């Protein structure tokens, strides 16, 4: 692993992500003594502030967004002393020279985090390079969205690569910072019992659901140009799929893990115009109620009619030896009935039931990995219902259910960005997305989008507070499978 840097430079320091996630995460790391003692954090954005004003704003953000019980005055005072602020207009190239003066000597290592609109990435990188802030001791982290399609993502990646080689580029997918996502690797590769079953001989299908109750929450301008496929599937859900489907890496390191993920992403069978109507469903929410509260429709929230999907369900196939014939159903949407992120793996039923002659039916085993709101691992097994079986054997599905919050109650639940920021500061790229992964993701997504436009597919309506349009049910029922709810 590389050395820890001595300065973190945060672009977009007054933005929403910084206030809600990044600054609270850095505070959390500081509170646990995980930040290098001398680490300076320099925030920058267009708003004109001085250090004291930035610290006041940060204190308010910490009080508002840190999980309960974490904020402590003395820790906050220490953390805030690390903070400095430099106003900067990215579009003014000369401003970077004075930024470089404020940053000072970078020989102790500098990590830069771009949490700005992607349209600002190129001018920022050009400015940094011209000001000498792209030397070999500098790392660059990029927050999504990295483009809107393959071509625009290549433009961004090329601009980054012109100043920062791949080994110093850290592309963020915050799902990889989530503890349960990493636990997927532990479950698969630190236990011997699953691997022999982890293939098309024993697994019937996989479902990945990321359901959110929220709407677009003031992010309409960004979201309307993106939609669920690009906002959630292109990155987070394909990363989850890759972690479920990948071969065992030779080591838990950046090269080995990412080599295996990219092989899966490249094996995704393209969904073209001939399949798109059967293998994808899109929807947009209309007025309804979520968790008992009435909520407006997407177009009302946006203030105009729109053809953007807020829900997508699709059937993906991984064309390789391990997964031949195993569908991966993915589904994500805004304004669903409940917040629920899970990976559901259904095994095949027993090949022959000895209980059938006694009137009992078996059900296939299931492994359910819950990511949100609670972190859990549940294995559903068949068991005999107690009794003397005078009327035949009765079998019932019972859960072996482990809540990770209980199993690890002595550990604080961390924000996903804590892990990613620490890995950035320390220079470990394992949980960041490599360029070839992003490109494979975009290529697959672009094909779906062009098939949608070739077939004139537009989102069907669903009422807020439901599981999407009824066609999403048909997507799996056609294969004799029900969504796990
Ligand atoms: C972001 C998307 O990447 O992930 C948002 O842009 C979405 O639209 C969010 O709400 C979901 O993240 P999480 O961690 O709340 O599941």
Explain what the structure shows.
By secondary structure, the protein is α/β, with parallel strands linked by helices. The chain has two domains: 7-171, Rossmann fold (3-Layer(aba) Sandwich), CATH 3.40.50.720; 176-412 and 450-477, Dihydrodipicolinate Reductase, domain 2 (2-Layer Sandwich), CATH 3.30.360.10. 35% of the residues lie in helices and 21% in strands. It is built from 16 helices and 17 strands. It has helices at 16-31, 51-65, 73-81, 95-103, 121-130, 150-161, 179-189, 220-224, 228-245, 254-266, 276-279, 298-302, 404-407, 416-426, 435-454, 470-477; strands spanning 7-11, 40-45, 83-87, 110-114, 138-142, 169-171, 203-211, 280-286, 288-290, 293-295, 311-317, 327-333, 340-347, 366-372, 376-384, 395-403, 460-463. A nine-stranded mixed sheet has the order 16-15-14-13-7-12-11-8-17, with helices on both faces. Strands 3-2-1-4-5-6 form a six-stranded parallel sheet, sandwiched between helices. A two-stranded antiparallel ribbon has the order 9-10. Strand 4 (110-114), helix 5 and strand 5 form a beta-alpha-beta unit. The chain is globular. 43% of the residues are buried. Bound molecules: 6-O-phosphono-beta-D-glucopyranose (BG6).
């Amino acid at each position: 692993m590389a050395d820890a840097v001595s300065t973190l430079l945060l672009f977009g320091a007054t933005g929403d992500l910084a206030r809600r996630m990044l600054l609270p995460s850095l505070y959390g790391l500081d509170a646990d003594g995980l930040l290098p003692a001398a680490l300076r954090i320099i925030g920058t954005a267009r708003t004109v502030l001085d250090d004291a004003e930035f610290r006041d704003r940060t204190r308010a953000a910490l009080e508002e967004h840190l999980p309960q019980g974490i904020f402590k005055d003395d820790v906050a005072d220490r953390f805030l002393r690390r903070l400095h602020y430099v106003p900067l207009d990215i579009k003014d190239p000369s401003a970077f020279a004075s930024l470089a003066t404020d940053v000072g000597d970078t020989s102790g290592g500098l990590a830069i985090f771009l949490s700005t609109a992607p349209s600002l990435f190129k001018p920022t990188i050009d400015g940094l390079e011209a000001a000498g802030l792209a030397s070999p001791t500098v790392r660059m982290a990029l927050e999504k969205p990295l483009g809107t399609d393959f071509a625009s993502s290549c433009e961004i990646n090329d601009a980054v690569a012109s100043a920062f080689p791949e080994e110093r580029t850290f592309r963020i997918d915050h799902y990889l910072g989530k503890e349960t996502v990493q636990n997927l690797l532990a479950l698969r590769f630190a236990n011997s019992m699953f691997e022999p079953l982890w293939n098309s001989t024993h697994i019937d299908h996989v479902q990945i659901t990321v359901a959110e109750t929220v709407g677009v929450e003031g992010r309409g301008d960004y979201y309307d140009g993106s939609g669920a496929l690009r906002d959630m599937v292109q990155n987070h859900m394909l990363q989850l799929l890759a972690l479920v489907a990948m071969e065992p890496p030779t080591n838990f390191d950046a090269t080995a893990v990412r080599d295996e993920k990219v092989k899966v992403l490249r094996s995704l069978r393209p969904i073209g115009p001939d399949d798109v109507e059967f293998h994808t469903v899109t929807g947009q929410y209309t007025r309804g109620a979520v968790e008992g509260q009435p909520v407006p429709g997407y177009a009302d929230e946006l203030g105009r009619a729109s053809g953007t999907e807020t829900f997508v369900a699709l059937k993906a196939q991984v064309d390789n030896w391990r997964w031949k014939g195993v569908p991966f159903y993915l589904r994500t949407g805004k304004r669903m009935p409940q917040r629920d992120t899970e990976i559901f793996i259904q095994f095949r039923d027993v090949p022959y039931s000895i209980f059938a002659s006694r009137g009992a039916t078996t059900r296939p085993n299931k492994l359910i990995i819950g990511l949100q709101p609670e972190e859990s691992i549940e294995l559903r097994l068949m068991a005999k219902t107690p009794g003397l079986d005078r009327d035949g054997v009765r079998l019932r599905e019972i859960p072996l259910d482990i809540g990770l919050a209980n199993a690890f109650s002595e550990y604080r639940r961390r924000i996903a960005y804590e892990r990613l920021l620490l890995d950035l500061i320390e220079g470990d790229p394992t949980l960041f997305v490599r360029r070839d992964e992003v490109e494979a993701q975009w290529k697959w997504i672009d094909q779906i989008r062009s098939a949608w436009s070739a077939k004139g597919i537009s989102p069907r309506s669903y009422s807020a507070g439901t599981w999407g349009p009824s066609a999403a049910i048909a997507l799996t029922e056609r294969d004799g499978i029900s969504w796990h709810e």
